[in-house]
Amino acid sequence: MGAIFGSSSEWSGLVSTSCRHPDSKKLTQLLNDFLYSLFAALNVTMAGEKHQVGETDLEGQAEIPKTAASVEKTAWPRIRRGWVPLAALAVYICFRASVKTWLYEQDVQDLHSHWTFQAFGGNKLDSTKKVEELFLSVPNAKSALANSRKYATHPHLAGSKEDFEDAKVMLKLFQDQFGIPASSDIPLYPAGSAESRSSTLDIHKLTKPTAWIDEYYPVMNTGKEVGLEILGEDGKPVWTAELVEDGDPADPEAAKYRNAVPTWHGFSANGDVAGEIIYANYGSREDYDNLLSVGTNFTGKIVLVRNGVNTRGPKVEGAQELGAAGVIIYSDPRDDGSVTVENGYKPYPAGPARNPTAVERGTVQLYARYPGDPTTPGYPAYENATRTESGNVPKIPSIPISWANAQKLLAEIGDVTVSRKLTGISSTSKIRLVNKVDFKVIPIWNTMAVIPGHIKSETVIVGCHRDAWVMGAADPVSGMVSLAEVVRAYGTLLKSGWRPLRNILIANWDAEEYGLVGSTEWGEDFAEWIQEQAVSYINVDISVGGSTLIALGSPSLAHLIRRTAQDIPHPSDPKRTLWDATKDSGPFSGAADADFMAMHNTVSQRRAASTGVQLLSSGSDFTVFLQRLGVASMDQTFVQSPTDAAYHYHSIYDSQHWMEKYGDPTFERHVAVGKNLGLIALRLADSIILPLNTTQYALELDDYLDFVEALTLAPYSKLRKSIHKLQRASAKLDEEKVKAEQELRELLNKVHRKSHGCNKSILRRVIRWIKHVVGSRGLPIRKLIKAAKRVQKANTKLVAFERGFLAEDGISSREWYKHLGVAPGKWLGNSATTFPALTEALTLEKNITLAHHEAHRLTELFDKLTIVLES
């Protein structure tokens, strides 16, 4: 049989290589089984006939001569022997052609849908428009308000019972909206277990949405006792601070939960210390240097600093390095802009000014060194993980206090009560600071969901954290509300038949407030998978805390961020776009502190530069993706402007009542952010060519180097040359991605016309198939596959661009951070430092030799990245 028809492997290969529809394997196997049986029967029949004609198969025996009669007698069997295989071949061709043509059309339709959003049929432009229109029609203010009232009317501290209940609520939301069957057993998987590992690593095998909860086991602390006293000459207290917020009854939840969560710092050190108090403004590097310049001695002192400029951790670490005994951090009304009691506004809840008893809790973890579980740096916090000594938490105690209590301490210092300038004057009396905390392993829960796409090797990740210091109506519930609207909208798309081109993974992180713990542990757990799969990470944290929209992201995403925001309506003015909200301000007015306004204007100018999209640094869950794993990332938020109501960050007054009265009374900002982040994710998931602009990124590198050269007044010519080579390579990639997409679209349109013109007739299909076999051009499957691979290659390079900034040995003294393009400043916390290793070699280390070494490292990275783009 093999000599006539070819081996079974050969003819099965003809089918299997040309059909890639999900059902093709099963149908091909059925076809092959049928044909194999048919040809086996034919072989037996032909072999039998061969023996019947009297032809010998005995070794050495002479053949019997044939007479004329015998020849005539055997003519018909010969004809029959020739006809049977021909008939079988005809049946084979017809049957195979019918099945193959059906499979082929299905394959073409499937491939076409992969690249052209076949949720609704029709051409790419129309179907894309319909997908986006349907998506944008779902999020609404009524739903957003209801969800905010669900999530923001109770405390949900990381690791608490309430936090776990909310994790299950999010799981149910995913299940309900994505059509995921719920079982009696919650899909709760300990980190490191086979179930947890396969839930992420086997995403490429999914055909339907799924959701689960990963449980990690970090070391965290909880507040047990805090105390603050002014001591008399005899060492006994003459004043004891009330460290609990007042819980005004006009704010129902604030009154109900005023004692629910202590006023303490996450990861703060245990301590009971006493000493004179010194005022150090923001506790920035410059503030401490200024105090040292006037001869201030910090040894054994308690340092009083205000929130702002940098994060809490560097404030405490700076004082610790100077020999201080402890740190107290307060919220100063000067940083509220115009809306102050001094300007005639009533304090919240009677008015928009700061409630004087409000306390800003928060972490003092040094996450500019490394985030996540302090005892498992660089690897996941499994239950049985090997623990190391914490390397990113302070060693001296600290506590947060209110403005009301801070006024009492400032009075002890003297003339600082009027100007609050840096004089280095310390109090005559001693201050006692007590901070008792309990460090232990505390389980946390990341709730995850996946919508599988057609391309199994590319994933868009969307994330928002769930835990709050108390109720957290803005932080993070406003972000959760926006995310919930996205989930509802994606659920509607799924019900309509849509399926994304790429996978979409949605994460509801835990323990972000302690130091980005949930996202960091997951990122460390699945680092290899993320670097292979993730095309982008989209973060949302605080959706709404004020009136001014700010967008932050990798420069390669800046154009997408801006363009999408221009496609979303403004929350309150239909004649404007969401992007126009970057210029919005609050409804109040009045004079503001000059120093605060100078700082605010500096930030605004930085934001207004170039694309209008700020650089990411740290401070939220994008950190592990961008700074360690090289995934292009973004974030967005409405922030407090100088003319907005005071936002009570991490206080009991970050409440539903405040949000409905001042934060976002209509909840349209919540909706706008949801539409924007969801639409950005859609465009990343469903675009043929990923909307990543590497050339914008490459051009901005010149600005980074300009800043460095301004510090030294010396050129870094080799690095500059390397940047320019990278820019040229990126420009060529721009040309290639346009051509690659154009070629694929032309072929898709051709396939679309041909496949829709196919007649259902078996005969016509066979004719088409025969023409294809004998050399007719037919459907351009090979060209289509080649074009798709060309697109894939371009997309691989686009994703590789951000990865190209990673150095295995990381940034000196904080090696967890691998990104040499941008990172949180060592002293700045949430503010970005460009070319961080190089910049800090000059600004902090003041080491020219080290700076040249860092410039060389950057040059090598950019040269390698150029080769990748040109390959």
UniProtKB/TrEMBL annotation:
The Transferrin receptor-like dimerisation domain, residue ranges: 717-867
Ranges for domain Peptidase M28: 446-655
Segments forming domain PA: 275-348
Keyword tags: Coiled coil
GO molecular function list: carboxypeptidase activity
InterPro entries noted in UniProt: PA_dom_sf, PA_domain, Peptidase_M28, Peptidase_M28B, TFR-like_dimer_dom, TFR-like_dimer_dom_sf
Coiled coil: 716-750
Family: Belongs to the peptidase M28 family. M28B subfamily.
Protein name per UniProt: Zn-dependent exopeptidase
Species in which this protein is naturally found: Steccherinum ochraceum
